[in-house]
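Researcher: Structure prediction, please.
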Amino acid sequence: AYAGLCSIPEAYYQAAKIDGATPWSVFRFIELPKMKRVLTIAILLRFMDSFMIYTEPFVLTGGGPGNTTTFLSIDLVKIALGQFDLGPAAAMSLIYFLITLLVCWIFYTLMMKNENQE
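Model: Predicted structure follows.
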């Protein structure tokens, strides 16, 4: 996000200063619209990373106590490698991928639809 912020031309800030814009209006009307694509990609990457969480809950709690920190990725590893049941694990991972793809597609479509309206 910092690279996107640095790519905004200085002329926008100078024009806002001449117009007497507050820091909030500079952020709202200059920085945020110019960084929309960068923020979209950053949010999508963070979303996909949240689905791939495995090491932290596995190392800290092993999925317990009482499966409170069990994520789908932990279940996939337990089924595929623990029980060596590769068929259901492959089906679960495909569904996992399709859910992630669907959510990312919806998010991207909404962001680009809003961008085309402006």
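Model: The first helix runs from residue 2 to 6.
Researcher: Thanks, that helps.
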